[in-house]
Amino acid sequence: DRYGEYSPGMKQRLGIAAALLGDPELLVLDEPTNGLDPVGINEMRQLIGAISGGDRTVLVSSHILSELEAVCDWLVVIDAGALLYAGPTEGFLGSASSVVTIVPELDADVARLAEIVSRLGHSPRRDGGSVTVPANGTEPRALAAELNRAAMQEGIVLAGLHSNRPSLEAHYLSVLEGADR
Length: 181
Description:
It is a single chain. This protein is an alpha+beta fold. The chain contains seven helices and eight strands; from the N terminus they run H-E-H-E-H-E-E-H-E-H-E-E-H-E-H. Strand 1 (26-30), helix 2 and strand 2 (57-61) form a beta-alpha-beta unit. The N and C termini lie far apart (49 Å).
């Protein structure tokens, strides 16, 4: 078949296969999931993980931050030509504020639950049928346990309790908001 008649996803796969033929120590991939379907994206992530597991370095350039979050252990974040961060992915995300969301079994308990959280010294935010509490440096698991105990002591049954760390994309956007641009 003529190369020009292939789908964008097949062209992407062929380009990466060609790049791997010489068994390079450094592989540079620019938008490696461009044109791929969800199965192809998953396969590409697995491939990147497999080929970067040995002595090979894989540099991935992408504007799709969820793609980078899934495969990268080291980030270089650049905005408008300025270096914002260089280091381990966890180091960049470590400065992101986690939140714990608690959902009472009864919607009528939301206001009371927010009041309990305030008495504990936290700053709750009511979100419909749930209460969101910023971790503010507290380990999210410890905060979740504290909130669960306090709700239980007040006779409130929790139907949901989970912690969330902002995604790479959400944290990047919050960093940009605080940067002089």
